[in-house]
Design goal:
Layout (H helix, E strand, L loop, with lengths): L20 E5 L16 E10 L10 E4 L5 E3 L5 E7 L6 E5 L6 E4 L9 E4 L13 H13 L1 H4 L5 E13 L2 E14 L9 E11 L7 E5 L4 H4 L15 H4 E11 L2 E10 L8 E8 L5 E8 L4 H8 E3 L4 E17 L2 E17 L6 E16 L18 H4 L19 H15 L2
Parallel strand pairs: 1-17, 2-8
Antiparallel strand pairs: 1-12, 2-5, 3-4, 3-6, 6-7, 9-10, 9-20, 10-11, 13-14, 14-15, 15-16, 16-18, 18-19, 19-20
């Protein structure tokens, strides 16, 4: 029997952040190479984080400067670049990763050559914890009850790095990056969070997209909306238990803290696409520390309606992949949204064509620094990034690495670096 869930309104763990895509026919868009001169008042350290036993890279490991709010994330090659204020050059960095022991390294030990950081799997044995299904529900209810106490109680300005990429099959066709400022309000005061665009650049090779241009609408707001704790109406409201069932999986150590792993999945059949995955809950504070989840795409036509805002009439767009992750960072007794990533796959089926095209969109946002907005400074309307922004339309070209100045960014993967070089050569040949 079908659930009485309708296809309008807001749903728990349904996320009104389906990352709308806009498809249109190819237009001529000029490319401009931007330059930026920066006076260095920081040190740049580079390293690679590996699994100690296999020597394989650890992707999306957190790297932070101790006693500061400055951090970054390793890329898929395990590589990171961290810009350290000279006033902190005698400090230390901490590297942590799910299921591994934290590693603290003095900044003074970094050299200009290869800096390899090896993390060892956590061997700490926890006392066996048995949680029945009803207790798993209680854990999630405690997460809901502790939302405000576990989060910032003051307005906050976060600096974040944002990247979105589009691939056709295995080839990168478009890459956009930005440094943004996020103006967040505390949960207890309510109100929406807004974004101010600081720097942005792009590199696009439209020849790889045939006659079709794929653009992502919403930009970094897609990641901002993934803050499952701030956006209670989209995630942890009282109706969540009507649509999902929760089951205790196990207890692990995460960043040297005992953490409950809770599996969740739809509670029977509903008429809209829902999610399944895992929630990681800190056992001491009952705060959400991490979440991995995927969208159920069995009903492809229904899912397509939630993703595609505009498309050519002769093309059918079928979602093939939709996976999400969000990480929270613990600092001074509070938890804040530190990193989020969305990976989407689409198949474009053209009428009267034998072959279809497969496209992949990846978007990620990492908070690299934050400070209390003690003056409660508010953005003017003209400063606010539109929630319907298509970031690719706002950027004018790719620049040299100095473009970012002192801002920490996620180091590009080798595959992305190669794509940028190929795209730039393609542009120079036109």
């Amino acid at each position: 029997m079908k659930s009485k869930v309708e296809s309008k309104g807001k749903y728990p763990l349904y996320f009104a952040i389906f990352c709308f895509i806009v498809l249109g026919y190819l237009e001529s868009i000029p490319q401009v190479m931007a330059q930026d001169d920066v006076q260095k008042s920081y040190l740049e350290i580079k390293g690679r984080v590996l699994r100690a036993n296999t020597k394989k890279p650890l992707e999306y490991a957190s790297v932070s400067i101790n006693n500061t709010n400055i951090s970054t994330i390793t890329n898929s090659d395990g590589v990171f670049v961290l810009k350290v204020p000279k006033s902190k050059s005698d400090g230390e960095i901490t590297v942590n990763y799910l299921g591994y022991l934290n590693k603290v390294v003095p900044i003074s030990e970094f050299t200009s050559k290869k800096n390899i950081i090896r993390l060892y799997e956590s061997s700490e044995k926890l006392e066996e914890i048995s949680v029945v299904s009803g207790d798993a529900d209680k854990i999630i209810k405690k997460v809901m009850a502790n939302r405000a106490s576990n989060s910032f109680d003051q307005p906050t300005i976060m600096t974040a790095f944002y990247r979105e990429s589009i691939k056709k099959r295995k080839s990168y066709a478009s890459l956009s990056e930005a440094v943004i400022h996020v103006y967040k309000k505390p949960i207890k005061s309510g109100g929406d969070d807004y974004i101010k665009l600081h720097k942005v650049r792009k590199s696009t090779d439209y020849t790889k997209l045939d006659t079709l241009v794929i653009k992502l609408q919403g930009g970094p707001y897609n990641n901002l909306n993934m803050d499952m704790i701030k956006n209670q109406d989209l995630f942890f409201n009282e109706d969540i238990f009507k649509h999902y069932k929760f089951k205790f999986n196990k207890a692990i150590t995460l960043n040297n803290r005992v953490t409950y792993v809770i599996d969740f999945e739809p509670n029977g059949y509903v008429s809209i696409p829902l999610f399944y995955g895992q929630l990681f809950v800190d056992a001491e504070t009952y705060a959400l520390s991490k979440a991995f989840y995927n969208l159920n795409l069995e009903d492809q036509k229904s899912a397509s309606r939630y993703f595609v805002r505009k498309k050519p009439s002769k093309a059918d767009v079928i979602p093939t992949t939709a996976s999400y992750r969000v990480d929270y960072i613990y600092k001074n007794g509070k938890w804040y949204h530190g990193y989020s990533r969305i990976e989407l796959g689409f198949k474009v089926d053209w009428n009267k064509r034998i072959f279809n095209s497969n496209y992949y969109i990846t978007i990620e946002m990492a908070v690299t620094d934050w400070k209390t907005n003690s003056d409660n400074t508010k953005l003017k309307n003209k400063e606010k990034l539109s929630t319907n922004i298509i970031l690719n339309d706002r950027a004018t070209g790719f620049s040299n690495p100095e473009f970012w100045g002192e801002h920490n960014v996620i180091e590009p993967d080798k595959s992305i670096e190669n794509a940028i070089k190929k795209i730039n050569r393609q542009l120079q040949n036109h």
